[in-house]
Amino acid sequence: MLTDAAAARAPTRAAEPPVPALRDETQTEASAAIQAVLSNSDVNALLKVMADAVLVRRRYEFFVWAQGRLQSVLPHDVLVCGVPRSQSARMFYDYYYSIPIDPEALARLCHPRDGLANDLMDRWIGDGYEPLLISKDAEYSADVRLGEELASIGFGDCVVHGIPKAQTAASAHCFFAFVSMRSMPGERDRQLAQMLVPHVFSAYSRAQTRERPAAEVEQTGERDAGVTDREVEILRWIREGKSNLEIGMILSISPLTVKNHVQKILRKLNASNRAQAVSKAISIKLLGASSMRKPLLADSSSEAGFTLLELLVVMVIIGLLAGLVGPKFFAQIGKSETQVARAQIDSLEKALDQYRIDTGHYPNGTQGLAALMVKPEDEPRWAGAYLKRELPQDPWGRPYIYRTPGVKGEFDLLTLGRDGQPGGTGDAQDVGIER
User: Fold this and answer.
1) Cβ 77 vs Cβ 95: under 8 Å
2) Are strands 158-164 and 431-434 parallel, antiparallel or unpaired?
3) Does residue 304 carry a pLDDT above 60?
4) Which of 107-121, 204-218, 329-343 has the lowest mean pLDDT?
5) What is the CA radius of gyration of the chain?
6) Residue-range domains of the chain with CATH
7) How many CB atoms lie within 10 A of CB 249?
8) How many CB atoms lie within 10 A of CB 344?
């Protein structure tokens, strides 16, 4: 405390002006507009979404958050996330979904050059960076034409919003589209999108930074860090024409695991099929343009030729190798076909067991294995198809033999091997099960 003398010597301070209220009339009107369309439950759900967004650090966490908490507020089928490429004005579009979506439809929606997402973003920019409702219904859609184009490729109504770039006109720092809304969107969804997009972008950015560069690699010879070493290995075998089953056998993983890797590759390379994925991988130098097999002879750039003696020596060596390695090589081919047959029979056995769980019995001899794909007329509890693809033939092009009742049990499922005759050894042996 100051003494009377010290207080007398202290300078006199002018009275400070009152601090103006932080909330002006415009803010009050905006708050009132939000309260008019959002219920208390909406606000509580919104706060939970925002709180959980802070915890997202990796891509799988973003997927779980987007398909969980975010869905509770803005239910939709596909979340499209757009960020600009590092050296281009074009956007890179990532997407997340948890239901089956046609890959061709996704490609038409999210292609970085010709995708419909570009048109949605342009319309959002043209409307002053405000959240938009897009539908083919003219009553509440900002652009009926875009709504009709979405419907033409199999998608429904959507809500779009993003964050504009501060220093660049008519461009976006990020862009998000909540596609195929599960109910008719309205003013509530516009307000929610406006409040949620900054949090969606923050969570998405953290996930990308942790697991791959924020800027996507363009086709300039730079490797795409989003494709893992295992996926590059699978891409090489795809280029060699191998099926998922064959790749799984080569890499000692299941065909289902290979399929999941292939789906990730298609998404990361924005490809609609395997051939397009290989082509894009080659164009960005992820794969070399040449085959995996290396040439046996010397560097082709050398100007020196071969003498006749050298050629004769090479031919003798090749002949010796063919005599020694050839029989073992062809034996391995037969062994591989037998392994494929065992894998297919195992898959058919599981499908038959599922058929029995649903119907109470295995298909009879008249119905055969076709009952796994086509519903028999007298099976009301049939819930197939029980195979993801068409009914396979054995590696030698013949139908698998299905007998019921079996020799020892309820059914036999087998192939007679390469020779098509009972018995045999090697690749001519019978392969099957008796249940």
Assistant:
1) no
2) unpaired
3) no
4) 204-218
5) 32
6) 36-211 (3.30.450.40), 229-283 (1.10.10.10), 336-434 (3.30.700.10)
7) 18
8) 19
